[in-house]
Specification:
Blueprint: H1 4-15, E1 21-27, E2 45-49, H2 50-53, E3 62-67, E4 70-80, E5 88-90, H3 92-98, E6 106-112
Parallel strand pairs: 1-5, 2-4
Antiparallel strand pairs: 1-6, 2-5, 3-4, 3-6
Length: about 110
């Protein structure tokens, strides 16, 4: 027979599982973003595609980005209306953590922290 503690532990483990998303990552030169703050090329920031931006519900949240055996983190500060499904647009400093800027576009997985 299972105890309530065991059931709660199993539910907690299940609900804390990270859900990774996959999409293209491109880079842009940040300025005044849709979340209302101004950043620059060296800022650790990301713009989310329209669906994941969710009308600004994720402004200020951090995501972890993974690709090519590298991992980095960026804060949501902008909307990328031209990004495809689960696509993200990052500052050059973040893109450079994953791939050379001259690559321009890279497949990544990412998740909210």
């Amino acid at each position: 027979m299972y105890s309530k503690a065991m059931i709660f532990a199993a539910v907690a483990a299940f609900t804390s599982t990270v859900s990774a998303l996959s999409g293209d990552m491109t880079w842009f030169n940040p300025g005044l973003g849709a979340c209302g703050r101004t950043d620059n090329d060296g800022s650790p920031v990301v713009a989310l595609n329209s669906a994941d931006y969710a009308n600004g519900a994720h402004c200020g949240k951090w995501i972890t980005i993974q690709a090519n055996g590298h991992q980095t983190a960026a804060q949501v500060v902008d909307l990328c209306p031209g990004c495809g499904t689960h696509g993200i647009d990052v500052a050059p400093a973040i893109f450079d953590d994953i791939a050379s800027l001259d690559v321009g576009r890279v497949k990544v997985t990412w998740f909210f922290q």
